[in-house]
Amino acid sequence: MTKYSDFYASGTSPEESILDTLDENECFRLLAGTAVARLAVVDERGPDIFPINFLIKSKALYFRSAPGTKILALSKRPEVAVEIDGTEGGKRFSVVMRGRVSRLNDDVTIQESGLTTLHTMTSSEKWNYFMVAPETVTGVRFQSQRHPAAHGSDSL
Q1: Which Pfam families does the entry mention (predicted)?
Q2: pLDDT digit string (tens) for 21-55?
Q3: Which of 4, 46, 69, 128, CA to CA, is 20 to 30 A from 148?
Q4: Is 89 a member of any domain?
């Protein structure tokens, strides 16, 4: 367990600023149980973020995409970050995978990955298949505390 005293806004008690650092296996378990992530890429205009449906297999992340700016950015700079967050057991979690994207061109690899049956949010044709090979996978779990006076009624 790691304490981050500045994790919450000033005035938060130390008991509320405790983060549990997740090990890699727990991060992959949470990734595997989540349907939507955010893919962060960098293009000539700077950072951009895209929602993706994905799956985890053999400690790699797989997703598919329709043609567009995401693919253009990935072809120029394959370094990415993928982030998920959620709630489990009354606590919040956040997991970040950093790695390199490679395009899948082999039909056998695409079939074995499970991407051809991956449900996606939109009905557009997504026939571009990718794998993120992780370089780092980190995560934290924490108890969310509401502070309406300091952050508004909708803040966590």
Answers
A1: Pyridox_ox_2
A2: 999 999 999 999 999 999 999 999 999 999 999 99
A3: 4
A4: yes
* β-bridge mates for residue 16, sequence order: none
pLDDT at 133 over 80: yes
Report the C-alpha gap between 102 and 128 in whole angstroms.
11
- Cα 2 to Cα 12, 17, 124: the distances in Å are 16, 9, 43
Q: If you average pLDDT over residues 114-121, what whole number do you get?
A: 89
Residues 6+ apart with CB under 8 A from 64: 115, 118, 120, 126, 127, 128, 129, 130
3-state secondary structure of 12: coil
Number of Cβ within a 10 Å radius of residue 108? 8
| Residues of the domain holding 53 | 17-143
Structure tokens at 129: 């298949």
Report the number of distinct structural domains present in the chain. 1
- Domain membership of residue 11 (yes or no) is no
